[in-house]
Design goal:
eleven-stranded mixed beta sheet, elongated, alpha+beta, about 750 residues, seven-stranded mixed beta sheet
Length: about 750
């Protein structure tokens, strides 16, 4: 029989409730922080470094030397352009209005049959008293459409750090989604190879492509091909031991991201009368789009993979890339600095919000920030998200400060499916996810997409947070996480705390908090999800922890409890819900959903009565299942039907039969019920006597089962084995419980 505690340690997490996802900064260039236009993504407390701007000739020379090639998705609708044709004067300021930009760009593209005004803007700074310079390439799109977020206007940036003494590039930093997602970065790139950017469809998040596979992103080295990034591995858990911490390009890595149609005033944006040139075909194609997350019962499986489309190349390049389609102009960004703002009303979309959620957050970004008002415009090192890269530059150049302490929150996501080893509807397991999800800390309005199924939030403030995860066709998840002070711990080993949060410190500056159970958060397909509610209102003892185990999946959910809680479980699972109170006492409750109807546990108790009742329930469940197999076993001659606390269902020498096993289990159930009843009455002596009988009868039942195991259907035997293991575990807990 599998050891239940061992199974618990091997398994992972399952589900919680989500109150909606606030995506104040998700797709594209990071949005300004509240109260400022600082779009920097550095996860440290390092100061802004002092820089100056070189003369125009020097700046132009550097910009032309490293001018990147841009490769876009074949379905891309909003390519880099010049925003100035859409600028207007408003109350004495120059602004670019979202309606004007989207409508006029769409019309110009349709009329010309080619991208209008292809332009990339450059900005160069030199670090004081240092040979280090940075060339920034800013590129503007009229609109941004992503999976759970979209906004008017979009600015992306590539930073090229170069040593002006040697002329060699030091570091490439390509902007990713939000202030929490690690950028795509490469330290010490080949000086003879210009940077190539792979732009994510709709969001324009930038991945690097620096090896010989020009139109694909390669996260890890393969044979003689180097990887396209040099970000360090996430580490912490085995599955992430070698996975670099960078966003990448999901549709190029085998995962899918469904897109959502943005709405304005309750209607699709293309129906707005202020956008006469914008039709449905102006958005991401329907084959990649879902109308809203809440109409999906399972993750979409037929979304097309990425296909390379148009390629932009600098018009002044003497040897253009062979696959170049469009020549772009390279313009100094100071020609744009009179633009005060990029404006547009808030957009929205349908989003499934569980009824039991505390809030219904529906905020979305209105526009992207203005680059020249961001800290990273003056100090590009503010956009370095890989600490090892910043440390390398700090080692080479006194002008660059080393990385400061910071916190990461990390979890892998997977999908809950029915276990093939279990009878139908009696056990689940987890499988690799086929789509990327969205992660959000409720305390921080910055939502971030997962990469390779990893949710990673960088630069999180210390303290208590609630992590929300959502994905198309999946029931949402939420759980508390306690984030420690970066640099406070000195032990590099991962150690478990009293909560499911696990924290590790690798070098005294980075603290990583693992969410979920063992760093994994499985998500349930929406059509198979059942709400499991636990309401401790009125319970005399303070409950501190809640966990959910599946017979085959092991521990799937584990959180501290502070008031009512609710989780989503798969209806094909067979679950043990466990609670623990402030005194360490345990209670257990059996949950067999069978359908999508909500399941509620009111006033869960801890102690002997709860545990004994659980043993009676799971034993009856096991007996009912075995008796339904339809076997016609003869009586084994055991006629002992005594009902006292020393009930004996037959010695080990008796002939094993299903009938004998069922009678043995009946005795277990009877003893368990007596123990529960006496504990409820406060009869300590009577409860202990009944528990002794329960222990003896359960051992006999297990012996009879072991003798019959090979005669039972394999999956039925596996299920019974796990249920008896749970019964034994809870019996042991009841025997040692101080609380009745």
């Amino acid at each position: 029989m599998d050891d239940a505690d061992s199974v618990d340690r091997r398994r992972r997490t399952l589900l919680a409730a989500l109150a909606g996802v606030s995506t104040a900064s998700l797709a594209g260039c990071p949005a300004p922080d509240q109260g400022s236009e600082d779009g920097s993504t550095t996860p440290t407390d390092t100061p802004i470094q002092r820089t100056t701007t070189p003369d125009d000739e020097t700046a132009r020379r550097l910009a032309e030397r490293f001018a990147p090639t841009f490769s876009f998705d074949s379905a891309e609708r909003w390519l880099p352009t010049d925003p100035r044709p859409y600028a207007t004067e408003r109350e004495g300021e120059t602004v670019v209005d979202g309606f004007d930009a989207l409508n006029d760009y769409t019309r110009a593209f349709a009329e010309a049959g080619e991208p209008p005004d292809p332009t990339v803007f450059y900005h160069v700074v030199e670090y004081e008293a240092s040979p280090l310079a940075a060339v920034q390439y800013w590129y503007y799109s009229a609109f941004d459409q992503f999976t759970t977020n979209f906004h008017w206007h979009d600015w992306e940036v590539l930073h090229v750090f170069v040593d002006t003494d040697s002329g060699e590039p030091q570091l490439f930093v390509a902007s990713s989604h939000s202030t929490r997602v690690p950028n795509n970065e490469f330290l010490d790139p080949d000086p003879d190879r210009r940077p190539r950017i792979l732009s994510e469809l709709g969001s324009h998040s930038s991945a690097l492509s620096l090896n010989d596979r020009q139109n694909s992103f390669q996260r890890l080295p393969l044979d003689d091909l180097p990887a396209d990034i040099t970000n360090q591995a996430i580490g912490l858990i085995e599955s992430l031991a070698e996975l670099p911490a960078a966003y990448g390009l999901p549709r190029d890595e085998g995962l899918r991201l469904p897109y959502v149609v943005p709405e304005l005033d309750g209607a699709p944006i293309y129906e707005d009368e202020r956008l006469p040139a914008v039709g449905r075909d102006a958005l991401v194609p329907e084959a990649l789009t879902v109308r809203s997350f809440d109409v999906l019962s399972e993750p979409p499986s037929d979304l097309p993979a990425r296909e390379a489309g148009v390629v932009f190349e600098h018009a002044g390049r003497s040897t253009p890339a062979e696959d170049a389609d469009v020549a772009y102009d390279l313009v100094p960004s100071n020609e744009l600095e009179d633009i005060a703002a990029f404006t547009g009303p808030q957009l929205s979309f349908e989003f499934a919000v569980p009824e039991f959620a505390e809030d219904a957050i529906a905020g979305h970004i209105t526009t992207a920030g203005t680059p020249w008002r961001q800290d990273r415009y003056a100090d590009p090192t503010a956009d370095i998200t890989e600490p090892a890269h910043r440390a390398a530059l700090a080692d080479r150049y006194d002008a660059v400060a080393p990385p400061g302490p910071f916190n990461d929150v990390v979890a892998t996501t997977s999908e809950v499916v029915q276990s093939a080893a279990a009878p139908d509807g009696e056990g689940v397991t987890t499988a690799e996810t086929s789509i990327e999800a969205i992660a959000l800390l409720r305390s921080d309005p910055v939502a971030s997409p997962t990469f390779r199924g990893v949710a990673m939030l960088r630069g999180v403030e210390s303290g208590e947070h609630r992590l929300a995860i959502n994905g198309a066709g999946l029931a949402p998840h939420e759980e508390p996480v306690e984030v420690g002070d970066a640099g406070a711990a000195t032990d590099p080993d991962v150690t478990a705390s009293a909560t499911p949060t696990v924290t590790a410190t690798d070098d005294g500056s980075r603290t990583a908090t693992l969410a979920g159970v063992g760093g994994e958060i499985p998500l349930v397909p929406a059509g198979d999800a059942t709400k499991l509610e636990v309401d401790a209102d009125g319970v005399e003892d303070e409950l501190t922890d809640l966990a959910v185990d599946d017979d085959f999946g092991g521990r799937l959910y584990e959180v501290p409890v502070d008031g009512p809680d609710a989780v989503y479980v798969h209806r094909d699972g067979a679950y043990t819900t466990e609670v623990r109170d402030a005194d360490g006492a345990v209670g257990a409750f059996r949950v067999n959903p069978a359908d999508t109807a909500p399941v509620r546990i009111d006033r869960p108790r801890t102690g002997t009565a709860s545990l004994a009742s659980f043993v009676g329930s799971i034993t009856n469940e096991t007996a009912d299942r075995l008796s339904s197999l339809g076997r016609d076993d003869t009586d084994d001659g055991d006629t002992d039907d005594t009902d006292d606390d020393t009930d004996d269902t037959g010695g080990a020498g008796r002939t094993n039969s299903l009938g004998g096993l069922l009678r043995a289990m009946e005795a277990v159930s009877a003893a368990a019920n007596r123990a529960a009843e006496r504990a409820e009455r406060g009869d300590r002596g009577g409860a202990d006597q009944a528990l002794d009988a329960l222990e003896s009868n359960l051992q006999r039942a297990i012996e009879r089962f072991d003798g019959l195991r090979d005669t039972l259907p394999e999956r039925e035997a596996a299920a019974a084995d796990r249920r008896l293991g749970q019964a034994q575990r809870r019996t042991d807990q009841a025997l040692s419980a101080e609380k009745l």
